[in-house]
Structure formats: structure tokens, C-alpha cells
């Protein structure tokens, strides 16, 4: 253990010397001793021969994977905090690293203040997870599942800057709650948060809603009016369903973002404001660019920090936490006695697919509270479709069964079928493929079937997600060497 009076030692594993030197300089005010390792093997050697209070670990290293280094550190000292350092494109890998023992992660490049705060937090004795309340609340969000921890980390990283956050996610996942969290966690928290829904306002009125108008600018403009841009001065302007905005207005919005200036409808006077932009859509923004519905230059201006909200079906036990919170809140509003769910209802909540996400869950819990009264929610109180088997499961079960039947009667039978083909001479030595190629094809098929969700693909393949990440990285490096 370290002496209480000695400087705390930090091991920074970073293969880019200039980045390592910069981050080391950021940490000078903390009065810590930073040692740098440029490879995975060097990091393991340093760690095994010295006492460190914290490890800052880059996942992409020139010799071995950061996952291997993390695994070795966890075997030697399971209690020492490890903070993963990752670029935007590798956030999924960093989240996966948290499953396997990492305590936090930083998105590179990171600012000096954020690095110092993260290191300070990691070095503090852990009394409660992430400094949040035991209930897992975070700026309006409820839940501490791994996918949501990733969202919280991105918000923490993005909030201090003025960079635009672009939120994507299915309808009902809480995109406006996320935008409010970005605002609340920023230095602009005491200034206005103004939201404008680009899909809910008629095309001919949205410019007026955004920039305001002068008296008499159009029929019905009986007085001068401030727009959302002016009201949000000094604070945050949230543009919900941004992909629904008319193309003509998109060009004006682009100019507003670039210059911070705008003109009210019917006015020649230019006004300037200081606004932080947060945008959201339930569509794929790049697909909308390809379709011609969204300007490419506006996309690049807004899509600075992408933040994808996970659907409720991927948040595990968060479903029960959110439902419990809603139950107590609605029971208080309606003057009912509800306090909890029985085991059968909890099972239904966890197994249902929730196509409408948190919004659908809210409606279900309110329905229960309004129509019934008891201390415990039972299965008889559940409204459709929770009082029957999930429609998604009904639709998917026969397809899976058919697919499996077409391939083979069962996994165990695959071996007997293969043996029979070999005995019949249907398979020759020339037909045998290298194991790595068979493995690569199986992994790619699983990833494609899960729409790119690697943890889900790993579940189907019955392997660790980190195994897939390592293999993908290895194949990519091999391909680069061949090219």
C-alpha cells in the first residue's frame, strides 16, 4: 500500500508520446507522480513492479489489447481503479471494459479540468457509485445499467464545453430529458433552457418560433415577439426532431450557428446571442442527408458529439427501477396505496420488449394506478399488451425455429450430421476451411443479425463481448498489414 504522506502514483498507458506528455502536464497541479508506459507489456511490467493508486489506460496499444492489460491488472490488484481513455469511435469498447472492471472512462481528446476531476474522483474512497444517489438518479434519468452509465459519462464529458450534442434514439427514450441533463450539468445551468419541436410547428411558423417576428410581419402578427433563439441567450437551445426542419430554414439555421446572429421575421436589424445547441432526432441523421432531407453542411456543423440513447429493452433492471419510481409518483398524485410489484409482474416488466420505451412504460403504470388500488401490483391489473405474451416474441419465435430447423434439428445434431456427410464422402479435405475464417464468418453473421450490437451478438455466440472486440481488432490489423 502507499504511504499516506507519499505522492499517489498514477500509471498512464498511452502509446502517443505527445498526448502522454500533455496529459501528464494536466495532472501536475494534483501533486501526483505520473509514470508513462507506451505499450501493453511495458504497462504490465511497470504495474507488477510498483505500487500505483490509479491506472489511466488506452485500449488501442501497439502490441496487445488494452483488454489484456485490464485483465492482468485485475488479477494482480482487483481494487485499484482503472480509467479507460478512448476516442469517440471506441465508446462501445470502453463501455465493455467497464463490464470487466474499469471504473470510469474518458473520451479523447479531453480537457485539463475534466481529466483532473476524473482522476480526483477515481482516487477518492468509494462511498457510493458515481457520486449519484443510491437510487441511480442522474439529472432526471433513473437507472444505472451499463448502457446508461455510458450516456452519463458522455454527458459529463460534453457538458462543460460549448460543443453541440446530437442526441439520437427511438421515440420515448428520453431525448429531451437528456438535453436537459446536458444543460443542467453545464456552466449554463442557471440560464434558460428553451426547447422547440421542429415537427410539431407548421412549416410557415417555425421561423417565427425560432427567431421571433416584428409586429405586422405577417397576418396575425399583432405584436412583436421574441423567438426561441433570443429567449435562450446565455443558455441552451434544444432543437427536437431537427431532421423535420424545412430545407430553406436549415440554411438560415446554419448561418445562425456559424455567426450567432439572426434577424427576426420582418426586421432588418441583426441580433447576436450566445447559445449552446443540443439537437435530437429519432431518425438516422446521415440517412436523411443521403435522402436529401437534411443539409450535409448542417449535419457536420451539428453532429459534433453524438449521443445515442439505448432503448428500454436494452437497459435490463432499469425497467423495474423506473417503473417503481413512476408507481410511487402516480400513487401519490392519485391518492392510491400502491408501493411495489409482485414477482410475476416484475418478470413481465423485464421480459416485455417495450417498443414505446419509457413513454409506453409511463402510460402502463398510470393505467394501473388510475384503474386499481392495492399495496401491490398483480398480474390481473396489467393492461394490454402486458397481460398477454409480447407480440414481438410471438412474431419472432417461429422465424427462429424455422431458421434453426433449416440449419439442423439441434446444435448437438450438427456433429452427427457432419459425421454422416464425412462418411458419405460429401465432404473432402479440400472443403475444409481454416478455423479462423469459419470463426470470422460466424461472428460477422451474428453482428449483422444484431444490427451491429456486439454485446448482443456475443450473447448469441455465447462468448464474452471483449473476445469479439479483440478478434475484430486483430483481423483489422492483419488486413492493414496485408494492404
Automatic annotation (TrEMBL):
**GO BP, one annotated term:** phosphorelay signal transduction system
> Where does the Response regulatory domain lie?
9-123
Q: State the coiled-coil residue ranges.
A: none
Alphabetized, the UniProt keywords read: ATP-binding, DNA-binding, Nucleotide-binding, Phosphoprotein, Repressor, Transcription, Transcription regulation, Two-component regulatory system
Q: Could you tell me which SMART domains the record lists for this protein?
A: AAA, REC
Record domain Sigma-54 factor interaction: where: 141-370
* PANTHER family for the chain: PTS-DEPENDENT DIHYDROXYACETONE KINASE OPERON REGULATORY PROTEIN-RELATED (PTHR32071:SF117), TRANSCRIPTIONAL REGULATORY PROTEIN (PTHR32071)
Name of the molecule in the record: Luminescence regulatory protein LuxO
Q: What is the lineage of its organism?
A: Bacteria, Pseudomonadati, Pseudomonadota, Gammaproteobacteria, Vibrionales
| Protein's gene | luxO_1
Amino acid at each position: 500500500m502507499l504511504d499516506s504522506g507519499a505522492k499517489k502514483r498514477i500509471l498512464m498507458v498511452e502509446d502517443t508520446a505527445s498526448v502522454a506528455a500533455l496529459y501528464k502536464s494536466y495532472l501536475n497541479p494534483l501533486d501526483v507522480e505520473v509514470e508513462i508506459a507506451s505499450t501493453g507489456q511495458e504497462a504490465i511490467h511497470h504495474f507488477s513492479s510498483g505500487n500505483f493508486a490509479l491506472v489511466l489506460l488506452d485500449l488501442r496499444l501497439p502490441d496487445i489489447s488494452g483488454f489484456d492489460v485490464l485483465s492482468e491488472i485485475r488479477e494482480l490488484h482487483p481494487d485499484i481503479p482503472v480509467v479507460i481513455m478512448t476516442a469517440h469511435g471506441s465508446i462501445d469498447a470502453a463501455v465493455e471494459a467497464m463490464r470487466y472492471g474499469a471504473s470510469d472512462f474518458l473520451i479523447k481528446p479531453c480537457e485539463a479540468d475534466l481529466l483532473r476531476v476524473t482522476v480526483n474522483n477515481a482516487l477518492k474512497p468509494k462511498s457510493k457509485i458515481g457520486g449519484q444517489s443510491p437510487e441511480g438518479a442522474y439529472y432526471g434519468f433513473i437507472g444505472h445499467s451499463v448502457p446508461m452509465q455510458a450516456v452519463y459519462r458522455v454527458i459529463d464529458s460534453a457538458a462543460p464545453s460549448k460543443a453541440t450534442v446530437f442526441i439520437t434514439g427511438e421515440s420515448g427514450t428520453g431525448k429531451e430529458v437528456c438535453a436537459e441533463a446536458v444543460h443542467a450539468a453545464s456552466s449554463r445551468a442557471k440560464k434558460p433552457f428553451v426547447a422547440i419541436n421542429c415537427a410539431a410547428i407548421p412549416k410557415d411558423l417555425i421561423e417565427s418560433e425560432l427567431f421571433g417576428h416584428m409586429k405586422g410581419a405577417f397576418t396575425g402578427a399583432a405584436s412583436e415577439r421574441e423567438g426561441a433563439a433570443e429567449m435562450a441567450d446565455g443558455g441552451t437551445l434544444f432543437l427536437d426532431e431537427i431532421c423535420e426542419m424545412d430545407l430553406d430554414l436549415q440554411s438560415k439555421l446554419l448561418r445562425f450557428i456559424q455567426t450567432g446572429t439572426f434577424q427576426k421575421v420582418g426586421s432588418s436589424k441583426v441580433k447576436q446571442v450566445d447559445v449552446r445547441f443540443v439537437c435530437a432526432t429519432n431518425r438516422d441523421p446521415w440517412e436523411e442527408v443521403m435522402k436529401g432531407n437534411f443539409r450535409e453542411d448542417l449535419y457536420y456543423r451539428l453532429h459534433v458529439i453524438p449521443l445515442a440513447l439505448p432503448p428500454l429493452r436494452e437497459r435490463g433492471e432499469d425497467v423495474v427501477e423506473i417503473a417503481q419510481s413512476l408507481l410511487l409518483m402516480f400513487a401519490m398524485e392519485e391518492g392510491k396505496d400502491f408501493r411495489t410489484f409482485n414477482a410475476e409482474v416484475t418478470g413481465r416488466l423485464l421480459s416485455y420488449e417495450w417498443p414505446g420505451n419509457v413513454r409506453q412504460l409511463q402510460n402502463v403504470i398510470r393505467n394501473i394506478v388510475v384503474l386499481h388500488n392495492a399495496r401491490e401490483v398483480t398480474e390481473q391489473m396489467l393492461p394490454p399488451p402486458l397481460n398477454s405474451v409480447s407480440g414481438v416474441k410471438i412474431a419472432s419465435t417461429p422465424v427462429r425455429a424455422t431458421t434453426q430447423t433449416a440449419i439442423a434439428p439441434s446444435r448437438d445434431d450438427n456433429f452427427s450430421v457432419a459425421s454422416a456427410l464425412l462418411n458419405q464422402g460429401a465432404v473432402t479435405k479440400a472443403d475444409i476451411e481454416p478455423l479462423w475464417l469459419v470463426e470470422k464468418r460466424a461472428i460477422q453473421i451474428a453482428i449483422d443479425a444484431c444490427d451491429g450490437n456486439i454485446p448482443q451478438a456475443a450473447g448469441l455466440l455465447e462468448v464474452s463481448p471483449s473476445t469479439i472486440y479483440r478478434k475484430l481488432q486483430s483481423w483489422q490489423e492483419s488486413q492493414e498489414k496485408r494492404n
